Amino acid sequence: MIQRIQSLYMLVIFAINFFLIFSLEINPNISISENYFINYSYEIISSIVLLNIFLFRYQKIQLFVLKFVGIILVFGLFNFFDERSIIESLTDLGLIYFIISFILIYLSHNAISMDKSIIDSSNRLR
Hints:
Structural class: mainly alpha
Largest sheet: none
Order of helices and strands: HHHHH
Helix content: over 70%
Radius of gyration: 17 Å
Number of helices: 5
Oligomer: single chain
Strand content: under 5%
């Protein structure tokens, strides 16, 4: 389970999100409705990715969960650019989080797809 490269990618995504849960400070000037997605998206993503690591026998479910996490990140990226001007958003370090997360999700999705194709091809030989 952990020796698979996609599990390591997902473990890195979990570690990044888990770090962000404890490192971000909530601004008291912003109302909870405006900051609702930002507050809970890291917890949702980290718990889903941690659960996804243990679903290594179900590749279709893993692929679906990674697509779901990617959609959550897309909405987070839209929210990231919505709150500020584009120039402020592009110079913010939070953009690096989204770039790294998208890259790791892409790499783990490709690794799971390759494993799934290897398993399917070996099942045809039986």
